[in-house]
Amino acid sequence: MSIRNGLFSSESVSEGHPDKLADRISDAVLDEFLRHEPSSRVACETLLADQCVVVAGEFKTRSQDTFRAVRERAVTIVSDVLRDAGYRESATGIDPDRCEIQIRFNGQSTDINQGVDRQDGVIGAGDQGLMFGYACDDTPELMPAPIVFAHRLVRRQAELRRSGILPWLGPDAKSQVTFRYEEGRPVAVEAVVLSTQHDVGIETEALRAAVSRDIIDAVIPANLRASSYRELINPTGRFVIGGPKGDTGLTGRKIIVDTYGGAAPHGGGAFSGKDPSKVDRSAAYMARFLAKQVVARGWSKRALVQLAYAIGVAEPVSFLVQTEGVTSARSSEIVDALRREFDLTPAGIIQCLDLQRPIYYPTAAYGHFGRDDLRLPWEAVDGLSLGEQGSIEGRQS
């Protein structure tokens, strides 16, 4: 949980990375279901390979009209996501208008549903599993510094591409940031790796100079760079072919990018394409919310929260809070205080964080936590109600 001394790295990927395209398509489908019917049960997976996209999953809606409406719009949703990411043609990425799009929608298993929508009216957990949440005082976002700066780099890359300042940038990009830690504090950036897709006409040295000047210099302050600081920009040189043309994409394959960059444990469950009855998603958001409460309220500089559930059972089977510099007795008091204040059943989490709304598509790139461009309910602190926090509708990156 706490990085004491040495080097630690985290990576991020852009919205045009093939795995992120898969996440974004799955969450766009989820949002469409929630727009029609907030109680929809959604488990949506996406595969992209070259000029083929397969969207498959299991769904349950109260109205068959909802299922049919989303099913009919699914091909358009896929094309819109690909186009929004910046893809236009097949030679170097994927063509949103001509690629093959297969839609495979099924009904949710009745065996699973009987444990979720129970006869007693209680919402049971959609699956068994364990989820972690983390917060620390490395940054104002209460996130580990390496993942925060890794996200900033690829977001900056996307901003310059979209604005036309560097029009030869492509949609596919990856970043990596290495920090040196001393006594548990991030003190300097040792290395930055940034690989970006580009047009065929840009020379490698010109690309590296522009990326260093316009992307990295805007994100990594000079006073934060170690004396041995290094930049590795497109270390293999040419990166013209990207997206699904260069690599297969799958939903849920960037779960460390989505969370804490490896600075905290991960239970293994992905977020994208899952409605909030799936505790893989909702309980991970709640765990982050609780960890952030602990740090924001000054109870500890770092907090790790674990929640675990059994399928069909509402109450968690375990709830752990690990803190730094706090006695075991005080840790127990923190657990008791949080249990009294917050309902940790799936229904309680959904109500507390107001999760049955189409807010997920913008989270599917650049991380689900520590976002300063979105007002997300699980990032609220100090026990303020959602009304006191104001609108939490995020703007799309």
Quick take:
The chain has three domains: 6-13 and 145-242, GMP Synthetase, Chain A, domain 3; 18-114, GMP Synthetase, Chain A, domain 3 (2-Layer Sandwich); 129-137 and 255-264 and 278-389, GMP Synthetase, Chain A, domain 3 (2-Layer Sandwich). Helices cover 34% and strands 24% of the residues. The chain is built from eleven helices and eleven strands.
Describe the 3D structure.
Residues 7-109 form the S-adenosylmethionine synthetase N-terminal domain. Residues 108-118 are annotated as: Flexible loop. Pfam families: S-AdoMet_synt_C, S-AdoMet_synt_M, S-AdoMet_synt_N. ATP binds at residues 17, 172-174, 238-239, 247, 253-254, 270, 274. By secondary structure, the chain is an alpha+beta fold. The chain folds into 3 domains: 6-13 and 145-242, GMP Synthetase, Chain A, domain 3 (2-Layer Sandwich); 18-114, 2-Layer Sandwich (GMP Synthetase, Chain A, domain 3), CATH 3.30.300; 129-137 and 255-264 and 278-389, 2-Layer Sandwich (GMP Synthetase, Chain A, domain 3). Helix content is 34%, strand content 24%. It has 11 helices and 11 strands. Strands 1-6-7-8 form a 4-stranded mixed beta sheet. A 4-stranded mixed beta sheet has the order 4-3-2-9. Helix 2 links the parallel strand 3 (52-60) and strand 4 (100-107). Helix 1 packs antiparallel against helix 2.
